[in-house]
Amino acid sequence: MPGARLHRLGPGACGVLVAVLSAGPAHASPAEAPTQPALTWSAPPGCPQSDEVRAWLAGHLGAAADPAGYPGLTSQGVLEREGTGWRLRLVIAREGSRGEKTLRGRDCEELARSGALALAIAIEPALSGAQAGPGPEPEPGQVPAPPAAATVPEPAPPAATVPAGPQVTPPAAEPGPARDDAPPESDIAPAPVEPAEPLAPPRPRVPVGHALRLAVGLEAGVLPGVGAGLLGGYALRLPGVRVELTGSWWPGRRRAYAEPAGVGAAAQIGAAALRVCPTPRLRRAGKTGAGLVELPLCAGVELGALVVRGSGFTGARTVRTLWAAAEVQPGVVWRFSRRTALWGSVALVVPITRDSFAIDPLPELFRIGAVGFRAAVGLEVHLGREKN
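The structure corresponding to this sequence follows.
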């Protein structure tokens, strides 16, 4: 490719890619119009897109492109950000063979230009051979040795462009009679070909979301009477399921004897709960995230402390004991904005520990109920990048 200048390419990247992705010799004559090879290209906005890369690839191939096309040849480029720079993944496949190479750089346009040059040399290795000049003629009856991996010259500035003029590929030499003045066979062996890196399928990313909750509720059946409580917690939101870690506080509710007047005790519960919640979705959210409706059906275990404080008599003291309960809690979550949702639930609580309390020498004051009922409503703040 006399007189042509190359775009800047990462150190050593193009030469290795030629050895890995070699696609065969050129077949076109200068008089034939080049045919664009198949290319699938993916790049984020702001970086060169498919049309630009195809134009660069056609400019590199020039007259060396096969006018009959490249049947069975597929090429792919995926340009994506990596840390503070960019990564370009190139794949080319034909006739059951596949090769892949990854280039990296700090500028996405410069990296895309380098990728177009690397693909052109991989498709038509004669383009790299033209840089090194003609090699020794083959002996009669001997198949010419394949060209060695090309060495990329000193990188040119990023603003350099490739001339749009035609590139002529010299015709292959016809084998003829032996000549006495033929140059001796070169003792330089071709560079070893690196094995192609296996194309590992991308790992699927599990969409993960988070939710922070604050709510108020009512409880009846466990402690004496009916009382309000405060609830809060965190939910890990995975596709089709929630895992919740929550806390609740049900302030003291008093029970007193009829006689003597004023003698009694107040009981309160503070506990943490771990729940697993299969969560079907009633309908999907819009583009802003609003409108999503979820129906979590939670089951879990609650552990904490039951505190009972006596009052109204001399020597009144406080008793603390273990609180443990199993619970089933169906609920509903309606996201009315991009990040905020209204949460509500009802719960059935079955105490595992059922203590009774009395003030000596008086009879039993109260006993923990066999079943409790709770209802709560509150707000959730949704975080993360889960799928809507």
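The chain has a mean pLDDT of 76.
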